[in-house]
Amino acid sequence: MIHRRRDGLVDYYRLVVAEGLWTTERRARHYTEFLFQRIRLDGRSVLDIGGGGTGIFSFFAVANGASRVVCLEPDGAGSTKGQTAKFARVAKALGRQDVMLAPQTLQEFDRELPRRASLIPVDQVAWHFDVPSAAG
Fold it and tell me: What domains does the chain contain, in order, with CATH numbers?
């Protein structure tokens, strides 16, 4: 179990490196600070579209004060095997029950969107839309 600190980010960075989600804490800090620069997350509901199945950005959002985060990741449609279990391990280790993994496409989840959510599209979002195949 990770030792919990007041700011939550210390535990976040250590854990995501330990789980193999980032190669180094420095790299994780650099990327997340760049991606979330000038975005206030305090008290906000966040929809993380394409959280990689592991919730990398979802857990970063709650560590920065987001009140509720939904990580949209259709497990069978593009996620790497075992990512759902890794998400659960990270949530447990960080003691976060305010992050939910939704294994659905955006169209399936649309009915359940929080009223005021910051949409955060990230890597490989094409897997998260239910688009008819162009193949015959």
Answer: 9-125 (3.40.50.150)
